[in-house]
């Protein structure tokens, strides 16, 4: 365990305990490393809780199973949303922020004691909200729209969690300052760190919106405030509710770049282009909070059109750029590695046996094709009339947050285990299949909910047969089939998720320690270089230098664009057949 | 590598590959197209949500709906206990969302336009007209007036698609659409 | 900041992108103005029913 014992050394100007990473030669501040571990462990715990709750939701929606009674269903659905949409992803994102600042900048973490306070607040807040929900009188859904009223502790827990996350963001920004002051890196921060900056900026807006609305709502639940306007609540709440998922987008795009860099040596094709795309996220991604307010009375169409389009779709432009530059960087790196034959040798011979790569690439494809396209369609002002509050909405965000973000974070875990926990991944044979199981499960959940939503099925609804309603109604039979298939794919995703939790926990507890000797091996299968080592001198200073022609990537984006445009127009066609409305 | 600082001190001036530029151009134009598509639909499309909204006290709105029902009631909706209300074409039609029903049952004529008033007596609800699949959010305290024109006859259901508590899944309503001139 | 390479002047946009606090300021004020403030102003202007 030569590298395990911390050396006292100077990182920048101040003495801190660090170790030197045997793979990257970066100095890793041990305080940062402990915080990354703590946040990652908490994230996985809340993923496990939220995942089980999600399975219960899907099994209740499956008409033939209809597992839970209605009160339990609404309680479980509330808890499911909170645990996965907030707790799992934000704990993991805290780990990413500390990694992208302290580790990638070769720097000590600013004020680790504050980062621990942040962690404790987040854990306490998450547990308080969870316990409050499980008492059964706070089944107000993730959105907790007033005048639905939860117990005061429901809001208090969320406020504590948000304050903790805000402190974590401040530690991140503080670390950027320390790194610059102490000159621990040359020039500009790495692209992955830049993506983390985008995520942290959006996180600050998210948390500020949450504070503006949750603190008065907490006081209202205690009786100190008499009335909260329902539309104002919704407007500000979505500044948190939707933007929190935009933190994910920035973070998982950064994760895509990081995995491509670590496994394949991929360089950004152009720093300028990729960073500008992140800048579009920073400026405009949060505007899409308006997606939830498109059929709301009281807001003008000018406000709706401008905000729902993220300012003339500039943030979508950001995503479309990343959607090309990430596979493009991989293709350029693989061609540099010698896989130059045909259009797709670079992709066929990519390290598909490595769960970090397969998870990352599946996340990229499904985020684009399922989550991305459905999101733009759902967020088109008039098209939203056919989709608002149907299962189309959870269908969309299971494509972004589950098949996109969660799968990307799972993929990154297979590198975090050897590099940060310094443990080999247990059961590599199973790990190889894990992203596929989870990814295909999540993709199916998403697609079948999109399908049921297209047929009009309401979201957050316990009984689509309306057995207890006085005025009866039947959804089309196809909707029942869709929800049955949704249940089956939820089981598949649960198996994949359980495997992830089992592999992660087992590796942390019982995995073989990683030393200098097995460090590279522990990263899993890497692409074989088929060119002589001498030619590495040809590597350009930026990714597209010498490898500007990327036929495989062009083909992939062309297919994507055609799918996007066709689906977009099909929905306008459907809309034109709807009852006229003005 | 994306996990290392850029190798050039001044990376902003590095050339961008042609393929990348072409894609950025296409993506930018596509975004502009999608933006102007929404504006175009406001001018030429027939499905746009009305912006006519008033603040109203929930109990005041309930009284308006009751007066409306009294004026145009033509009978009962079977043995459900719901009044069946047939307002004249072109008139103001009121629908009340409350825990856990849409009240009353409306009878409209195919091809005629109605000014449909939507509001809630208590919590937020979702007006989801099925199987048409037309969805509008309903708030307490906001009276939203949308002009709606049924294009087919039959029995249509209103499903609440905003979670509104324990009885949410029982909350439905009904709109009957008859051929012009029938049923009054 | 870096002393490697030439003394070529760092372009304006690169300096913007290298300044996380400027980005933080922009990333909070732009959506706060366009989404929150604009939206809240509209809510206050909803007329009262007669």
Could you explain how this protein is built, in words?
The complex is a heterotrimer of chains A (582), B (184) and C (50). Chain A has 582 residues and is mainly α. Chain A has helices at residues 30-61, 70-103, 112-134, 152-181, 191-222, 230-241, 243-264, 271-284, 301-308, 310-336, 345-348, 355-378, 392-419, 428-454, 477-510, 519-522, 551-576; strands spanning 7-11, 14-20, 27-29. Chain A is built from 17 helices and three strands. In chain A, strands 1-2-3 form a three-stranded antiparallel sheet. The radius of gyration of chain A is 24 Å and the shape is globular. Chain B has 184 residues and is an alpha+beta fold. In chain B, the strands form two sheets. In chain B, strands 2-3-6-12-11-8-9 form a seven-stranded mixed sheet. Chain C has helices at 12-17, 20-44. The longest helix of chain C has 25 residues, at 20-44. The chains are: A mainly alpha (582), B alpha+beta (184), C mainly alpha (50). Chain B binds chain C through residues 8-13, 53-56, 60-61, 142-143, and chain C through 2, 4-6, 8-11, 13-14, 46-50.
Tell me what portion of residues of chain B adopts beta-strand conformation: 35-45%
**Quaternary organisation of the protein chains:** heterotrimer
Q: What is the alpha-carbon Rg of chain C in Å?
A: 20 Å
CATH topology of the largest domain in chain B: Immunoglobulin-like
Classify the helix fraction of chain B into a percent range.
10-25%
Uncertain spans of chain C, ≥5 residues at pLDDT below 50? none
What's the alpha carbon Rg of chain B, rounded to whole Å?
Answer: 24 Å
Overall pLDDT score of chain B: 96
**N-to-C order of helices and strands of chain B:** HEHEEEEEEEEEEE
Distance between the termini of chain B: 75 Å
CATH class of the largest domain in chain B: Mainly Beta
Mean pLDDT of chain C: 90
Number of helices of chain B: 2
Q: Report the major sheet of chain C.
A: none
